[in-house]
Structure formats: structure tokens, C-alpha cells
Model the fold of this input.
Amino acid sequence: MKRFKIIIVSLCLISASLILFEKVYGQDISNLPQLGKAPIEEVIAAMTLEEKAALVVGTGLKMGEKENNMGFQIPNQPIPGSLADQTKVYVSGAVGRTLEIPRLGVTTIEMVDGPAGPSFGSRTTAYPIATNLSSTWDVDLVYEIGKCMGNEVSEYGLDLLLAPGMNIHRNPLGGRNFEYYSEDPLLSGKIGAAMVKGIQSQGVGTSVKHFVANNQETNRIAVDALISERTLREIYLKGFEIAVKESDPWTLMASYNSINGATATENFDLLTTIARKDWGYEGIIMSDWDTGKDPVEQLKAGLNLIMPGPYQDTVIIQAVKSGKLSEEVLDKNIAWILKNTMRSPKFKEYEYSNKPALEKNAQIARKAGAEGMVLLKNEDNALPLKDKDQKIALFGNGSYVTNVGGSGSGFVMRAGPTVNIIDGLINAGYKIEEKSNQIYSDYIKENTPKQNMMRAIRGFINRAVEMPVSKELAETISEKADIAVITIRRNSGETADRKIDGDFNLTETEKNNIENITSTFHALGKKVMVVLNIGGVIETASWKNLPDAILIAWQPGQEAGNAVADILSGKINPSGKLPTSFPIQYDDVPSAKNFPGTPSDKPEKVIYEEGIYVGYRYFNTFDVETSYPFGYGLSYTGFSYSDLKLSSTNFRNEIKVNFKITNNGSIAGKEVVQLYITAPDKQLDKPSKELKGFSKSKLLQPGESQSVSFIIDAKKLESFYSEKSSWIADAGEYTVKIGASCEDIKLSQKFNLKDDILIRKVSKALTPKATINEIKNIK
Ligand code: BGC
Done:
């Protein structure tokens, strides 16, 4: 009887809500096709033109009450009462969402930034920056970090993280390089794919961005990147291709800039021909925020979703009515959105907890931060700092106020408490020399300018300028301390590129400080370490002989100080290696004379004359010395490489490469091994070597060995022939080079490929309108 009552009451409630629904929408939804139940075509056919137009446009930046009341105007607000306005804000502070159409069962996809962890109204974790993560060369660890980020996205009820950033480090001044992985497309692609897989393993989506060639911030919205087809395919598209094919990201984000004359979001070749046709991409292609001139052209090019909206729908409706845009094109774009909407937690009615595993995530962030730190120099085993009774004098503002990440959308706004370097060292049991601590603390307090709230929430935080350390001050402190640690700190972020003077190069104050501190400490036989708290490459050649040790800590997330202490103390043996070359001087960089383009204050175009010769591909081929090469990084132990064997010296379908690494030092450690290939260059210009594989060893005990193997398949031998639009492996002699960096080749062996192999033919796409005068390796 009781059960019967419950059923009756439920039926009444259901019919009441159906009546209410019918009242609101004027229809009986029981007859309407529902997403997930009816075929997508039927759901689309049941949409009004207004709904269709609003669905291919985001619903704007409606952020939720708290954010809307923060005292500043939030742009892109939906018109009151519009469809966009009716879409619910589920999570306050999300940076964009798609339209919901309840009568058809279409749920919203709610999105947040960014590559260093979710950033919105709730407490999340600031993870190490992308460059710190790629320096681990550890796809399993990056996968773990992805899982942590995904856990925060999903447990806060969000659907999608606007990450990872996968542009190439073309030039060290790139303001957003910290959000990206490497100068090398293979490393970038593999690390990016691991990140996507990790995030998506939690049932939430990613947005691989910024597609493509958004390698600078200066005039990013209008600059036209002129790049040859080969360079695009081999360098700038390659990482994206790997991520798309290996990790199936839910979305791709088309960038602000143009490529060979057509803006990315209106670029049919890029979005439809390459992503859809050549790569078989099946996710949503969306725009970066507020970009593109013509929404109709964007939809025609294959851009499915214009973000963040919400104003473009009226133009789209007009275009359909006037015949300028066929409804078929609109429907095609909608189909991609709906197909992927069904993957989202909102659609699956995921019951989130609002309690992500923040403590556990912070521990994994700390581990990854440390594993991605790169030890550049360690003379006479200055590190690790074994004796915890030694007094450490801490210099550099960054020792006290450490940068955990960069600014802009890559900044994590409500991260957990920052562990500054001083805190991390204290936590690890070190003694800090009091005078230096006192002087810096007072100085920073007095000299930190007022924050601009609007900018600070995006990480544009005003910092005190670096405190000068006179010779006298250094002398006084050196008498009281046993050792010195100097932190050099940098920050950069969205909308601006870095400068050469005082950013890529050290400032005068920083140079003087290093000189004064090293000379006074060394005079007393005491050692000096430099910690680089940086997001991108800086000049090191002119001062690197001064300190005893140099560690790149990058911007290692909220656990910064603990992670630094883990390395300095030897709790974790450094195993990070450089994902990007450190040149001797800025002018040595192959893109230096073409960055940021012309005219330099507001470049309309930037010509990629260096072609495929980006980073080590250039330095190695043209014999230009670097300060620290790609793939370089020291350990507190040492490794030997031996027993290289190739399964054959004649290539047929594949060759198996095998070798052994041994920890020949006295403490446990991990080694990143790199496989490079030198390819025959009779028909086509080729870099002297290219990374074709990498792997990180397990933690090897002293004396322990590990066997490492790689498979070389035909794809690892391919180059792109623009005139044939084909990937071809050239016949000839190849050399396998196993290295500890790109310049420290330990083992090598040759093999032959008898005949050319056509690996695959792709579409003719993104052809430059005029020839690009690329540099050539003519010897
Ligand atoms: C950035 C994107 C970001 C988006 C949303 C844009 O300015 O370029 O990377 O995801 O804003 O915040």
C-alpha cells in the first residue's frame, strides 16, 4: 500500500512538472527528442534557429553573484532574458559555458582555466608550470598531475579544463612560454598527451591550445605568422597532432593569430582540412576568448564554438535568414558540440562532492615540482646540503616571496598557501641566518607597491624591486652564515612578451648581488648556490662561473619551497632535464631577428625564417654553442651507458634499439635518456639530429642497471615534403644516437634504409602566399 502511494505521488509530481514545463516552453517535452536518447540529427532538427545560433556561441562571462559583485565590470554579459542568460551558472567563477536547452536534454559544458591547475572561485591547487612538468620528461608523472587537476575539475562540478597549452618555445621572450612545454614537438606532444589522458581519466574534458603558432603575445590578436608548410607540419603542428591522435582531447582551442593570411578561427585549412580530415579529430573546435572578425566565416571554416560569446548569435541568425550561411553548416558544427556534450559530467549528472583531494594533490604537485627541477651546475658537490646545522643566508627577494606560477589565464587564483623558499628550508630543518632574513623581510614589507585588485586576481602581482646587496652587507652576512642561497625571480604572462634587458638578461642589481655575494662568501671558503625561480629561459653564460651550484626551480607551484628543499637537501636526487636550450646570448637564438615581427611595436606579420631550425635543431646543425643545451641536467650521482644493440642494420618495418644504463655513482637516482636520429640529407635539408624518443629510468640504486629499449618505426624517419604534401622516409644512412643531452651523445650506431618510404600523403593546406626565405643548412 505504501509503495502504491509513493508511485501515485511520484506520477503526480512528474505530470505536474511536465505541465509546468509545457507552460514554460509551450510544448510537451515527452514528444521531443532528448540528447543521448534520440539520434543527434533529430535533436538538432527539433531546435529553433535561435537555439542553434546560441549553441554555437558561448553564453558569455556570467560568473555568479560573488564575482559579479567584486566591484568591477565583467565584460561579455548576456542580454537579460536571452537564451544565454537563461543558462544556469552552476559553478561560480567559471570562465565560459555552452548553452543549455533543457527541453531537448542539452546540458551545458562549464569551463575553467588553465594549464597550472583549475582557477576559479574555489580553493584549488597551484601545480608546477608546464615547463617545470616537461622538464621531468616523465609521462607517468605528468599523467598523475593530470589526474589531480581532473579530480579538482570534476569534484567541483565543472566539466572542462582549458589546458594544456602546447605551443612551441620558439623564442625565449615568449610571454606565455611557461604555459607551454618545449622547443621540441615530440617532447611537447608526448607530455601534452599524457596531461590530456590524466585529466580526462577523471571524466572531464581538456582544451588543447592555442592552435596554432601562437608563439608570441605581442599583437597576438592580429599578427600573421608566415610559416612554410614543412615547418608547420614538422614543428608547430606536430605536438598538436600527437596529442589529438594519442589522447583524444575533448576540445581544441583555435588561437588569436593568423597563419599564412587567415586568422586561426576562420582558417578552413587548419580547422577542417588538417584537424578533421588529415588527423581525424572528433572533439569540439572552439575559439580562444573574443577572437575572429566574422562569426559566419568562423562557422564555415569549421569552428564549432565561438567563445565566450554571447553576442554573435544575432549575426548568425541573420546570415541563415539571408542565405549567407547554410543551415547545414550550422548543424554540422552543432553536431560536434552535442556529440561531446554527452561526454560531460553535467550530462551524466555526476554527483560531485565539492571536496577534491587537495592534500594529496599538493603532495603530488610537490613531487612533480622537484622532479622537474634542473641542476645546471654543481661544482665539487656543493649540493646537496647535507649538514642541517649550517646557517643559510638567503638572498634575493624570491627567497622570501617565491613565484609559484606565471600570470594571466595560466595563473591559479585561489590556490593553497604558497610555501616560499625560506619556509621550505625551515620545514626541512635548516637554519636561516637571521640578519639576512630580517633585512629582506623589512625591505619587502616597505617596498611592495599596492596591488591592483583587478590585475592581482589574474596573477599580475606587484612585487618589490630586487634589493641591492652591497659588498659591505654581503661581508657582514657572510661572517654569520655558512652558506648562501641566492634566488633570481622572474614573472611573465599573457598579453605581453618578455624584454631582453632586465628580464632575459639579469638586471644590474642582480649581477652586482651575485658578484658581491660570491666574492665575499668565497673569500671565507663558503659556498654559494643560485636558485632560478623562472618561467622561461634567461641568460646564464656571463655569470654561471661565479656560484658553486645553479638549480632551475622554475615556478614550481604552491609547494615551491618544499620542492626546492627536497632537491637542495638531497631528499630527491635531481633528474630534470632542459626541455628548451639556454643560449649564450639572445642574438644567438635563430628567431631573434624575426621576433616579434614587423613593425616591432605592433607587428602585423612575423616571418618564421628559421624554418625547422628551432632550438637545438639550429644550435646543433649550425654549430652554435649554447650555455646549456636541450636535454641537459645533472644529478647527484652519475650514469654510464653501454651495450647498444640494434635488431638490424637494415631497416624494413622497424628496428629495435636496446642499451643499458648503470648508476655508477654513490646514491640512488633517475636518468632521462634521449634517442636522437640523424637522417640522410641528400634530398632535403635536415637538422643534424632530432629527438625521436625519450624515457626516464626507474630509481636506480648505486651500481644498479636498467635495460632500455625503443622501437624505431618508419614514422620516426619521416620528413615532410611540401611540394608532394607527403611524409617520406628518405633512403640512405641513419644514425641512432643515445644521449644524456642533445650534445652529450653516449652511444651511436648506423643503419640503412634501402628505398624511400611514402609514409602518408596529406592534404595541401596552409600554403604561404609568398615563398618564405628559410635558412638552409648548406655546408
Ligand atoms: C587565453 C586562453 C584562456 C582564455 C579563457 C584567453 O585570453 O588566451 O588561454 O583559456 O582566455 O580565460
Notes: The two ends are 93 Å apart (CA to CA). Confidence is low (pLDDT under 50) at residues 4-25. Residues 2-25 form the longest helix (24 residues). Residues 269 and 766 are 6 Å apart (CA to CA).
